[in-house]
Predict the structure.
Amino acid sequence: MKIIMLSLDSLRADRLSSYGYHKPTSPYIDKIAAEGTLFEQAFASDIPTEAAHTSIFTGKVGLNTGIVSHGSSLTHLDKTPQWLPTLLKQAGFTTAAVDNLYQLKEWFARGYRYYINSVGEKRWIDGELVTSLAKDWLKEHTDEDFFLFLHYWDPHTPYLPPKEYVEPFYDKQRDPYDKSNYSMEPAYNHTAYPFFKQHHFDHIGDVRDTEYVNALYDAEVRYLDDKIKELDQYLEELHIKDDTLLILFGDHGESLTEHQIYWDHCGLYDVTVRVPLIMRWPQHIQANKRVKGMVQQVDLLPTIMESVTKIKGKQFADFSMDGKSLWPTLLGQEDSTHSMIYLSECAWQAARGVRTDEFKFIKTWDSGLFTRPSRELYDLKTDPEETNNIAEQRTDIADQLENKLHTWVETTLNGQEDPLVKQLNEEGLPFKKRIEQVLQQVGLSWEEWSKNPSKAAYDQLVQAKTK
């Protein structure tokens, strides 16, 4: 038995053709979906990357692991929680990863016999490198039972796809650098600009058209699709495709200007918390099937454990998990694993939410770089894009969902300290601190900058500093 998990960083579900997108971003991922099962409503309970992957590998939400933030110096995962690679190693699998999460926190290397760090000379990770390293490893371990985790970063900023991939997604008649186009002004004059200038905008040039940046994102997805195709075809060459449980998932999505979030992954809106999830396992998982009900990333660990038990007869010791096996949905016995999903973030802003099939409620503790009301409520049936906050009009529903959120938090913590509150009290928002550090380099305080964020004024200070 072979298990390959592909983390597709920053890939939002609705930007894939198989999830309804009208542009051809994902022909090969669509093929994999047709050969297996696609989950239409899969969600990340905790965002962004660090918190999401910790939940996936423990089968527990951040409130139970204590990992609710990203880039915080306060967080540490002790060795008490069960860890997916460790469990599989103990079950006799050769475990390997092509990944760079170890750069963030040490626990992401736990349980691997082989940890191949994908960090290269550049800040970003190219899918070509990840696929190449994976193929080299696969060639040497074809005859073994293995678990291989691959972390692709291509849809993550900076969006730098090969030029030939951009053309199908951007109108040739448009000029992305036309200075009469002012659509980029909200992004360039946002409080997050100093960070994204360094990590995104300086790499893509003086773009003036938001549609061009979105086209770069689509092109990145299309490029990723080709890298996945190369990997999958190699499985066929090695004659191990039929023996392989293949899992594709997004750790979180990406906001492409929605909710005043410009090419980043914060906010508990569906563009960020709804993720692609596709599973293929010939002769075990039904082909061309779509699961319509809500599932969570934390469901992956118990699903893999049950898969190993089915094939290898390996029994795992019982331990507490927040996830539920997806096998009842894969077999058509159920259509979801959860009727209500709790959401959390603590990086650019600190908020928690509750999502049902009908409503989304969001409670904000600290809005960080954004202007947010303390309570948001969206009717997902009539307002799927979450643009009309009805918290004040439907206080009955908002109160009901807030009470459910409060009860869940209190019950889960069971008297323990709330890690989100601890983060805010002791260190503040990690990404806000990043902005403050960048501002210090040009002699600006957060208070000065946040009152009047201006690209022109900031760029002038940067130029003066570099002279």
Notes: The chain has two domains: 2-174+214-342, 176-208+429-467. Residues 25 and 115 are 30 Å apart (CA to CA). DSSP finds 16 helices and 16 strands in the chain.
